[in-house]
Amino acid sequence: MGIVISLIVTFWTGYLIIKKFKPQPVLFVAGMVMMFASVAFSLGTILPVKESTGLVFFDAFEFIKRTFSSRAAGLGLNIMAVAGFARYMDHIGASRALVKLTIRPLLALHSPYIVMAATWILGMCLGLAISSASGLAMLLMVTVFPILTSLGVSRLSAVAVIATTLCLDWSPSDTGTLLAANTAGIDPVTYWVNYQVPIAITVIPVVAVLHYFTQKWMDRRDGHVVQPSEGIAAQNAPGKNGEQKTPPAFYAILPLIPLTLILCFSKLWISWVKMDIVKAMFIGLAIAMAVEFIRSRDGKQVFADIQVFFDGLGMQMANVVTLIVAGETFAKGLMTIGTIDVIINAAHGAGLGAAIMILVMVGIIAVCSVIMGSGNAPFFAFAAMVPEIATKMSVPAVVMLLPMHFAASAARAISPITAVIVVSSSMGGVSPFDLVKRTAIPMIGALITLTVANFIYFY
After folding, report:
1. Does position 50 have pLDDT exceeding 50, yes or no?
2. 342 by DSSP, 3-state: which?
3. What is the dihedral sign for C-alpha 31, 37, 43, 48?
4. Bigger pLDDT: 52 or 134?
5. Helix, strand or coil for residue 264?
C-alpha cells in the first residue's frame, strides 16, 4: 500500500513541477500527504511519541517548523550570506572585472576552438568564486561571447561552452555543496578538498576535450565557416566595452577574498584561527565596501549599496532555503510511509548492492534535473533520505551524495528549460533546443566520468 501511494504522489509531484507549478508548495503538500497517509494506514509515525505534539495533524507542521528553525540558523544562513555577497560583487562590477582579467591570456592562443575549450576551463575555475550558473553565464556572454564569435567560432558553439561552464557545482560556498556536506556530516572545506576536487580535476579535461571535438564537428556538419574578424575581436576585447561602467582591474581580487579566507583558515593550513563561511562573506563585504568608499568618496552611496546584499539574503531565504525545507518534507513523507525501506529491501532481495543503488540514485537525479530544468530541486528533494539509505547499504553517505550532487548540475545543462540554458540562448540569439543538442555529448561525458571516478576514488 505504501509504495503504491508514494508512487502516485511522486508522479503527481513530477507532473505538477513539469507543468511549472511552484516546486516548494508542491513538495510540501506531497510530503504531508504521504505523512498523513502513513498514519491513516498504520504504515508509520510522523514523529516519535516523545516529540509528538499530541495530535497527528499538528505533527507534520511541527516537523516543518523544526526543519525551518534548524536550516535557517545553520545551512540557510550560509547560503544567504553567499548569495548576498555574490549580488554585491555583481553590483559593484567586481565579478565583471574578474572575468575580464582572466580572459586576456586566452586571446594569445590564436586558435578559435582551443580558446573555446580553454574558456570552458576558465569558466569552471571562475565558478569557485561566482557560484551562480546563470549569473556566470551572463557575465561570460557579455564579455567572452563576442570574442569567441569574432575568432570564428559559431554562435551555437560559443553559447554551448558558456552555458555549461558550471556543469559541476564544485565551489565550497555553493548551496548544493553546503547541503551535501551538512547531510554527510562533513566540513564543507573538507568535502570540497577531499571529495569534490579529485572528481572535478578528472572531469574537467574530459569535458574540455569533448567540447573541442563536439563543437568543431557540429560546426563543420552545419556548414559553418571559421572566419576570424580581427576588428570585431579587438572591439569586444575586455575593457573596450563602453556601454558599461568598467570597474578598476584590481576589483577582480574582491570576489576571491572569502574563498581565500575559507581555504587559508581551515584544517588545510591555519587551523588555530576559526573561520566559517558566513564570517568570510561578511569580512569580504566589509573590505569591498571600504574599497568602494576609497574609490568613490561617497559614503552615502556606499551605505545605500549594502541593500543589494540584504536583498540577496532575502531572495535566498525565499527561494533556496524554502526549497531545501520543502525537499526535506517530501523526503520525510517517503521515509514515513516506508518507501525507502521497500526500495532497500527490494535491492537486497534482488541481490543489488550499494554500487547499483548509487547508479540508480544518480540516474533518478539526472533524469529529474533534465525534466525539471533544475539541479537544486531534485537534489534537495532526495538528499535528505541518503544517510538512511547509505547506512543500510553500509557505505558512507558522502559516496552516494557526491555523484548525485554533481549529476544534478551536469544534467541541468541538457535541459532546454533550465535558467542557464534559457538565459544563454536568449542572449546569444539561438534556440534553447538547438543549444542542448550541442551540450548533450559533453554533459553525458561528464555524467559518465564523474560516476566512474567516484567509484574508483571513494567506493
Report:
1. yes
2. helix
3. positive
4. 52
5. helix
- What is the rounded distance in angstroms from the CA atom of residue 285 to the CA atom of residue 271? 23
Cα–Cα distance, 63 to 170 (Å, whole number): 30
* pTM score, whole prediction: 0.70
To the nearest 10°, report the CA torsion of 116, 122, 123, 124: 120
- The DSSP code sequence of 359-382 is HHHHHHHHHHHHHHT-SHHHHHHH
Distance CA 216, CA 210 (A): 10
The full set of domain ranges for the chain reads 2-458
Cell of 166: 558550471
- SS3 at position 338: coil
Lowest mean per-residue pLDDT among 150-154, 234-238, 377-381: 234-238
The Cβ-side half-sphere exposure at 162, using a 13 Å CA radius, reads 35
Return the CA Rg of the chain: 23
29/454 Cα distance (integer angstroms): 34
Task: Decide if 102 contacts 57 (C-beta within 8 A).
Answer: no
Cell (9 digits) for 398: 558522502
Which burial class, exposed, middle or buried, applies to 232 when counting CB atoms under 10 A from its CB (0-12, 13-18, 19+)? middle
Q: Cell triple for residue 93?
A: 562590477
Q: What is the C-alpha to C-alpha distance for residues 316 and 380, in angstroms, rounded to an integer?
A: 14
From start to end of 407-455, where are the E strands?
none
* Cβ-based neighbours of 80, under 8 Å, separated by 6 or more: 312, 313, 314, 316, 317, 321
Phi and psi torsions of 28, nearest 5°: -60, -50
pLDDT digits (tens, 9 = 90+) for 219-238: 999 888 777 654 444 444 44
60-89 burial by CB neighbour count: b if 16+ within 10 A, else e? beebbeebbeebbeebbbbbbbbbbbbbbb
Distance (Å, whole) CA 214 – CA 228? 20
